Amino acid sequence: MNKIVKLSVMETKLFFREKMAVFWTFLFPVLMIWLFGAMFGSVKIGGMTYSNAYIPSWIAVNILSTAFFGIGTVMANYREKGILRRYQVTPMRSWMVLMAQTVQGTVIFTISAVIILIFGFLVFDLQVPKYLGSTLLAILLSLVAFFPFGLLINSIAKNVRTASAISSLALNLMIFLSGATFPIEWMPQVLRVIAHILPLYYVIHLIRQTWNFTPIWENGVDVVVLIGVAIVSIILSSRFFRWSGE
Length: 246
Description:
Blueprint: H1 2-17, H2 19-40, H3 50-81, H4 83-88, H5 94-123, H6 132-155, H7 160-177, H8 189-195, H9 199-212, H10 220-240
Helix pairs in contact: 1-5, 2-3, 2-5, 3-5, 3-6, 3-7, 3-9, 6-7, 6-9, 6-10, 9-10
């Protein structure tokens, strides 16, 4: 456990040295919330205020971006540079490296979520979740589903450049088609169908529902889909993940 803690601390320090990573993780969501708030701030979306609809959405987006770029792409980079192979000849086991990355990703996501919440409370009169326990469970389930999903996406890439391209494409596709930016209700029917295929849609829907309307056990479809994503991602990422670039 001590090894995992030390490696997690080191990875967190390395993250904060990357200025672009800090911007995209902590500042970009706040800017997007402010921008869309200027456009939709007075609009009711599915019976929700702007803040209670979009701030949960951007918390969901940050789960995805952390999974893709805070864990998946980092591991792809370590594989390409041979860092993972060096770990294999040390007392640090492979599962410890993955656990440290997961801990680091969780810490980074938590900090970003707190920043988003503070901004929402101060600027957009955000209301506290109606079912706080269910909302926290929804976020935890989303982390469990998307962290291995991010690892899977990057496991199929041959190098870090390809991993970054795949992650960027998947992230942007889901951001704009899952309801995180433009309301699903405003989209053409074909885009609504596509939205229901994307895993981020179910994260957003589950967090919004538990934040505003119903406890988690009344959102069985979302829960089942995310559990399915978690199981499939864990199995496939275990199958395809490579510790060496060779």
